[in-house]
Every structure is written in C-alpha cells, then in structure tokens.
Amino acid sequence: MTPVLTVVVPAYNVADYLARALDSVVGLSPEVEVVVVDDGSTDGTAVLAQSYVDRGLVRLLRQPNGGHGAAINTGLAHATGNHLKVLDADDWLDRDALTAVLATLREQPDLDLLISNFVYEKVGKKHKTVVHYRGALPTGGVHGWQHTRRFGKRQYLMMHALTYRTAVLREAGLRLPEHTFYVDNLYALIPLHRVRTLSYLDVDLYRYFIGRADQSVQEPVMLRRLDQQLRVNRLMLDHLSTVRAADRRLRAYRLHHVAIVCAVSSILLIRAGRLAEKDRWWAELRAQDRWLYRRVRWSVFGQLSNLPGRTGRRVSVFAYRVAQRAIGFS
Asked: From its phi and psi, is residue 207 left (phi > 0), alpha (psi between -120 and 50) or beta?
C-alpha cells in the first residue's frame, strides 16, 4: 500500500529534540511513512532514531554530513508516500491538525499542494504567533492560482506551510544545494511553477521551534553565514529569471516572496557593514534582468530596505526589528 504521506525528518546533532518531533507523527496512522535522514550526526541522534526503527515506527537513512539540503534531497529520493512533508528535527506537528491533513490528502490524492498554518514557538515568548493564509487563499476545496488573492505583507509560503505531492517535487527537478543554510526558501519557491491545484486547510499544523542561540535564523548566526543567504537569494532570482510562471497570480506571489528575501539580504548586508557589496548585489540583478530588478527593487520591501544615507539605513534596520518583534521569527 502506498503511504498517503511521507514525513521527511532531516536530523543533524538533534538528540535533545528528535524524540519530540518523532512522537508527534509516529503511531498516528499506518498511512504515514516517517523517514529520518541522519546527516552525519556525531551525538546520539542516530542511536535515538534507531530505537524508533527497532519498534517499526520509522525508516532511518544515514549519510555523511551534507547539510539540510542534502538531507531533504535524500529523503525525497527515498520517499514512497503520495505526498511529502518536511519536518525539521527540532520542530513538531500538531497531531489533531495532522489527522485533518491526512483526511484531505486521502480525499484529494491528485492535489499538487496542500497549505496549512504554522506557529512560531519562540523560546520565552508567551504569545505564539500563528502564520495563516486567510484572505490570500480560499479555505477548503481545490483551486488553481487564478483563485488566489494578494498575499499580505506577513504572508509568504515557508517550507513549514507546505505539503507537496511527491511527484511535483520530482517533476520540478528539485535538487537543493549541499552545505548551505536557508535552502528552505528554494524548497518553497522552485516547485510552485509545477503546482496546478492547491488547497488551503486552516489548521495550525507545524510548530516551528525558534530561539536557540545556535539556530540558523538567529541574527548573529545569519551574519556569520551571510554568504550562504546571498547564494540562496541569487538562486531564487536565477529561477525567476529563467522560469516564467504562466499564471499572473503565481507570478505576483513569486515576486512577493523574492522581494521579502531580498529585503532581508539587504538588511543583513547593512548590519554587516558591507554597503558597497549591497550596491553591487543590486547592480548585478539590474544587469542580469531589468524586468525582475524593477519589480523587486521598487517593491515596498525593496524600497524600505534601501533607504538612502545613514539615517535611511537606520530606518531600514528599525523596520526590520519591528517585524522581528511583531512576528517573533528570530
């Protein structure tokens, strides 16, 4: 029997968190396949995962360390489920919401993309921010991109919100870069041009644990890994330059998503004091694709992250800080 859903769990040195992630998905239904990809861990991650294998609850794949993207690539290559969900090993899923997701996937096996909500489970923050897609997406039913509306400023499709039909990921030729952080943006963007049918289930499925000092989205860590952020950003821009979406609503959404990521890159370059590089970075985009440059650079996000002068840069960084506090993303 083909599983309804494969949950791929990339795992690297997460022995302290992996059990919580796995306990949120195992034993719920025989229609859920759980694939743990141990990405060269040096702690007890593999031993813990093996204890779930011994109970017949998960499959374990082991590989030399290749990074988050490499682990997702491996999970995708070995997934047998009709649909696929990535669950990072320090996060977890809500079991009641997962039950609702499974019911939808059973009813709609040909659905290309199921979108659900995710929750920022930030350390020390009592109020948990829920990212939902009300207003942008019709709730329930199966729709095409032409039925979507404008996405709000806080709404963009992060990996946590997405459950793809496995064949869509493979048809899109998705292959994430190895030894590179922030590849989840590529996972959330590149396959969309292959998505013809989508559905929005307004349930809080994914619990995004955030706030650990060593986490990749913490600003000091992002500044140290800024070159990797820029690499992913360039790959996103290259994709938009070479793959044109036929539907205008999908084109608008993809520009919206990339404008947000470009704004983050600009702010981080400001914070790192790499101002000349920021200017070169935008000049490269202008030379590469003037159409794309105009739509990204002169979007609300593009303008806000490129205000002129020292005062303008301070305003840009302040706006970024406000967004951080409002959403709780780092």
From this structure: beta
Residue tagged 């590089």 (tokens) = 277
Q: Please give the radius of gyration of the chain, using alpha carbons only, rounded to the nearest integer.
A: 20
Half-sphere exposure in the Cβ direction for 67 (13 Å, CA): 13
Which domain-ending residue is among 210, 241, 276?
210
pTM over 0.90: yes
* Cα 46 from Cα 37, distance rounded (Å): 9
Q: What is the DSSP letter of 152?
A: P
Q: Are residues 120 and 139 in the same domain?
A: yes
CA distance 188 to 202: 18
Helical spans, DSSP H, in the chain: 18-23, 45-54, 68-78, 95-107, 166-171, 184-189, 219-224, 226-242, 248-271, 275-288, 290-297, 300-304, 309-327
What tokens appear for 300 in the block? 């609300």
Lowest mean pLDDT among 215-219, 227-231, 241-245, 265-269: 215-219
Q: Give the end of a domain, one of 210, 235, 259.
A: 210
The whole domain housing 138 covers 5-210
- Are 200 and 224 part of one and the same domain? no
pLDDT at 322: 77
What are the start-end ranges of the H helices in 55-94? 68-78
Residue 97: which CATH number? Answer: 3.90.550.10
8 Å CB contact between 163 and 81: no
Evaluate the CA torsion angle 292, 294, 299, 305 in order and state its sign.
Answer: positive
d(CA 21, CA 270): 36
